[in-house]
Amino acid sequence: MKVRHIVLLKFKDRSKADDLFRALGELRKPIPAILEYTYGPYSSPEGLNQGYEYAFVMVFADAAARNLYLEHPEHDRVKQTYLPFVESVIAFDYES
User: Rounded to 5 degrees, what angle do the CA atoms 1, 48, 85 make?
Assistant: First the structure.
C-alpha cells in the first residue's frame, strides 16, 4: 500500500517558505523513493486551518520507502536548515 506523508506548517518567517519547498522537491534526486511531491498554501474558505499556512504531500510506494526518506541524511539536512524558521509542524501519514 502506498504511504501518503502530509505535513502542515506554520512559519515564524514566511520568507523562507519557497526555499524550503524547493529544497524538499530537490530531495527527489538523492531519494528516489519519493514518488510524488506537491505543496501549496492554505486555500479553503472554511477557515479550519488553525493557523497552518502551508502543506506538502509526499507519496511513497510503501512504509519502507517512507522510512528510507525519514532516515536519509539529506532529509535531515533540510530539516536542520529550515526548522528554525518554522513555528509549528503537524506530520500525518496514512496508507491507501
Answer: 80
Phi and psi based region of residue 39 (left: phi greater than 0; alpha: psi -120 to 50; beta: remaining) = beta
Residue-level pLDDT at 77: 98
Q: How far apart are CA 47 and CA 49, in angstroms?
A: 6
Is residue 25 within 8 A of residue 37, CB to CB? The reply is: yes
Residue 1 neighbours by CB distance under 10 Å: 9
Phi and psi torsions of 73, nearest 5°: -60, -30
**What is the architecture, at CATH level 2, of domain 3-71+88-95?**
2-Layer Sandwich (3.30)
Q: Which residues of the chain have pLDDT under 50?
A: none
Its pTM stands at 0.94
- Say how far apart CA 57 and CA 38 lie, in whole Å: 5
Which one-letter DSSP state was computed for residue 62? S
**Grid cell at residue 90:** 503537524
